[in-house]
Amino acid sequence: MDYIRNAMFIIFMAHALQVTSGARILGVFPHVTKSHFVMAEQLMKGLASKGHEVVVLSHFPQKEKIPNYTDISLVGSMPGFYRFWYDIPSEAIVKKYFGESIPPLHELVRNTSLILANRHFTINQPIPNVPAVIEVGGIHVPIPKKLPQDLDKFMNESEHGVIVFSLGSTVKASTFSEQKRDAFIEAFRELPQRVLWKWEGDALPGQPKNIKIIKWMPQGDVLAHHNVKVFITHGGLMGTMEAVYAGVPMVVIPLFGDQFLNAKSYEEEGVGVQLDYHTITKESVLNAITTVLNDQKYAERAKDTSQAFKDRPMSPLETAIFWTEYVLRHRGAPFLRTAGADLPWYQYVLLDVVSALILIGYLSPCDHVLQYKVCNFSIFRNVFLNLKK
Q1: 149-309, CATH topology level
Q2: CB 29 within 8 A of CB 13
Q3: Tens digit of pLDDT for each residue in 140-197?
Q4: Residues 6+ apart with CB under 8 A from 108
Q5: Least enclosed by CB within 10 Å: which of 122, 262, 264, 388?
Q6: Structure pTM?
Q7: What is the DSSP secondary structure assignment for residue 142, as one 8-state letter?
Q8: Architecture category of domain 2-140+312-341 in CATH
Q9: Can you spell out the DSSP letters for 294-351?
């Protein structure tokens, strides 16, 4: 279960006195990237709205006070090697507010009752899961809201639709090399569509009339607009799930991490195409965009996938809250816990079994040699005894 620490983890400390009573819930999210916190933020807010007392440790405290929601800010702590730069400072804060008797965080992580997985089988392929793993992919996707007036006007007045270009919260398009930046600019210049580009700079050199730059956008609300035709993205899971939810086909430019796997998955699903960042030219950008625009199968497949993604008995947030409260009602729900969670790592990855098989394979030829020698000795002994008679 230690692999969970490489993403984020939630620690629940609760005592449910009655079925209807609220719980005290501690959420520990030490990662410094906003995209890792978005999913957890929605869950914590949802639990607080249900009357639970929620305390959250993160680098992203809420700007406005929320009932039943208490922030303990980690802003300013130095990221680095997980055990030393995350666990130790986090443990100090937890002990300060919850007492010295609380076990170390790494022990609490191993005592996991439930895993809320930010995935969904419609876009991430089906996998065998144990009952304690619940898929809540799309939990962060907001209910679409009306866009700001200037943005709404820009979107509505585009006769041929809008292309949205955003590389998320981690990658800045303004750091592109001049060659790559100009490749996008010149490609966009030849398109009849308007382009809404998340650009962190104050100006875009050589900006065509059909491009609007914006330092931040309400991405989920923008993608939900009826006039969006294509989403150009780096392939981050959060942003692409928003596009899937909205039924918008994609041009994916994977840059690092899981983005390559996501891009391949969406391409195989037929909801987008990949664009190699290292070989970007005006022609390759134009080709990728026009392929998605002109081949109706991408838009149709995106709509079908969106419908399947949203077709659930409960919303992702309601699902996460239900199962969290289920664990609370059943005092940790130990019956959900698989024996594999308590295995040593070498048993979990079957190293003991593999080692035994290798040893058997190594000893097997030796056994044949030994049998051959014993057999020869027996034959020689019998022949020798017969000669003596």
Answers
A1: Rossmann fold (3.40.50)
A2: no
A3: 998 899 999 999 999 999 999 999 999 988 788 888 899 999 999 999 999 999 999 9
A4: 11, 102
A5: 388
A6: 0.72
A7: P
A8: 3-Layer(aba) Sandwich (3.40)
A9: H-HHHHHHHHHHHHHHH--SS-HHHHHHHHHHHHHHTTT-GGG--GGGGS-HHHHTTH
